[in-house]
Design a protein that fits this description.
It is a single chain. Helix content is about 45%, strand content about 20%. By secondary structure, the protein is an alpha/beta fold. It contains 11 helices and 12 strands. Helix 4 (about 85-100) runs parallel beside helix 5 (about 120-135), helix 6 crosses helix 11 (about 285-295) and helix 9 (about 235-245) packs antiparallel against helix 10. It is globular. The strands form 3 sheets. A 7-stranded parallel sheet has the order 3-2-1-4-5-6-10, sandwiched between helices. Strands 7-9-11 form a 3-stranded mixed sheet. The protein has a two-stranded parallel sheet with strand order 8-12.
Length: about 300
């Protein structure tokens, strides 16, 4: 039986991937920190292993007997033991080492579009570092370079507040076009590539089919709800000040604010040819996604 280990199986992407692969007759092991949050996955047929990326023994135990590893865990917003340095850097290095020892056949790493050695946001630099670690590990790998998830950046950070309060807060001007992808599209790609040697040892850029600004997203929610949302823009100068002020106390929030400032000034556009259409799949548009949230 083909065995897949999903790291971070109760997160937005990990949960969706676990459910979709189980529905498509894969044997899924869910690596989670909190078993109580994985009860639905267990009922759906997943094998549950409790552990985390700061615990080398639990990583080793999880990798034994696995054919494919899919990463969906991160510590971007975490503090303490699960801060980004421990999870995204050291933890993923240990995961790769354990995968080598366990002779895992395929390691799928979910990275970020724009990850680079000199990116101004440390999370992106860490992603690039782990990409290089994986490339030189000797494992068969696929690196997925992904944009912002619709579930978080379209709905949770914008749409939910419009639904509940008819208002939205946008960090920055909100004018810069950005690419967004639905995790439901990512999991369909994972099914295609999981056991497909054609995608081994490649970095693949996968985005959504269109590029929209955050102002356009707010307007879209307003149009579909037949309201005019109240919008508050927080200017860059204030965001830069807040990022530096908060960073020593909560690096994750400081990181998010800094990324928001960067995102409004950088090129966040992706080519529609890089959507999941390259896998013969139909991508989800932002409007289609929003309509599902409203339904």
């Amino acid at each position: 039986m083909f065995r897949i280990l999903i790291i971070g199986a109760t997160g937005v992407l990990g949960s969706a991937a676990s459910r979709y692969l189980l529905e498509n007759d894969f044997y899924v092991t869910a690596f989670v920190r909190n078993r109580a949050k994985a009860l639905d996955l267990e009922k759906a047929g997943a094998n549950i292993i409790v552990g985390d990326l700061t615990n080398s023994d639990s990583i080793t135990r999880a990798c034994n007997g696995v054919d494919v590893i899919i990463t969906a865990a991160h510590g971007m917003m975490s503090i303490g033991k699960n801060k980004s340095k421990n999870v995204d850097d050291v933890g993923h290095q240990n995961l790769i080492k354990a995968a080598v020892t366990a002779k895992v056949k395929h390691f799928i790493y979910t990275s970020l579009n724009g990850a680079s050695k000199f990116h101004p946001v440390d999370f992106y630099r860490t992603k690039f570092k782990i990409e290089q670690c994986l490339i030189h590990s000797g494992l068969c790998y696929t690196i997925l370079a992904l944009p912002a998830f619709m579930e978080w950046h379209v709905h949770n950070l914008l749409g939910k507040s419009i639904l509940q309060k008819s208002k939205a807060i946008i960090l920055g001007s909100g004018k810069n076009p950005t690419n967004f992808i639905s995790v439901q599209d990512i999991v369909r790609v994972l099914k295609v590539i999981a056991n497909n040697e054609a995608y081994f040892n490649k970095t693949i850029t996968i985005g959504g089919p269109e590029n929209l600004s955050r102002n356009e997203i707010v307007a879209l929610y307003g149009r579909l709800l037949h309201i005019k949302p109240r919008v508050t823009h927080i200017p860059d100068l204030l965001l830069n000040f807040l990022s530096k002020l908060i960073q020593p106390f909560h690096p994750g929030i400081g990181r998010i604010i800094k990324l928001s400032v960067y995102s409004e000034k950088s090129n966040a556009i992706m080519d529609p040819a890089d959507s999941i259409q390259q896998f013969g799949l139909q991508p989800t548009t932002v409007e289609e996604f929003v309509k599902k949230q409203l339904a």
